[in-house]
């Protein structure tokens, strides 16, 4: 079961695999013979996350998509997938430092003031009276009619 393929940029390094190997369950005794190493399955999952592709679009050099999906689903149900991503997130956090640069910002209507008068005055459409006065004054602009 040696690696017989070219490495992908998403493949785990030996150091990353050392951190994740204890979280990946070993093959069950008495079950089917092992066809794909656990590291290759995790490499396929890393590729899937990176490529954001459909399961069927996994490269043919990696384990079959049905096998990879089976382990991902099983580990997700068991809670192992969350543990694996937590370890990877923690490693990335220590690699980047305590305060990585922000990637996005979230704004909502309560965190931003629209004007000094307040949000409702600035965002509501003019009322019926205001539009009637504006239309009437433009029609009478050249006449000597009394303005209200």
Quick overview:
This protein has 148 residues and is mainly alpha-helical. It contains 6 helices and no strands. The protein is elongated.
Account of the protein in words:
- This protein is an all-alpha fold and 148 residues long.
- The protein has helices spanning 14-20, 38-51, 65-78, 80-96, 119-123, 128-139.
- The radius of gyration is 31 Å and the shape is elongated.
- The mean pLDDT is 80.
What's the order of the H and E elements? Answer: HHHHHH
- The average pLDDT value, as a whole number, equals 80
What can be said about the biggest beta sheet? none
The percentage helix is 40-55%
How many extended strands?
A: 0
Instruction: Return residue spans where pLDDT drops below 50 for at least 5 consecutive residues.
Output: none
Principal-axis shape: elongated
Number of helices: 6
- Find the structural class using helix and strand composition: mainly alpha
- End-to-end gap: 91 Å
Strand content: under 5%
Rg from Cα: 31 Å
């Amino acid at each position: 079961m040696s690696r017989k393929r070219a490495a992908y940029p998403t493949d785990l390094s030996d150091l990353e695999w050392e951190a994740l190997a204890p979280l990946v369950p070993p093959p069950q005794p008495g079950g089917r013979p092992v066809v794909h190493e656990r590291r290759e399955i995790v490499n396929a999952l890393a590729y899937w996350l990176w490529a954001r592709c459909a399961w069927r679009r996994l490269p043919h050099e990696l384990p079959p998509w049905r096998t990879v999906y089976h382990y991902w689903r099983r580990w997700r149900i068991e809670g192992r997938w969350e543990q694996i991503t937590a370890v990877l997130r923690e490693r990335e956090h220590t690699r980047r430092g305590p305060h990585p640069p922000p990637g996005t910002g979230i704004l909502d209507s309560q965190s931003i003031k629209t004007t000094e008068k307040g949000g409702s005055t600035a965002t509501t459409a003019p009322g019926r009276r205001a539009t009637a006065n504006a239309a009437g004054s433009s029609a009478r602009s050249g006449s000597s009619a009394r303005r209200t």
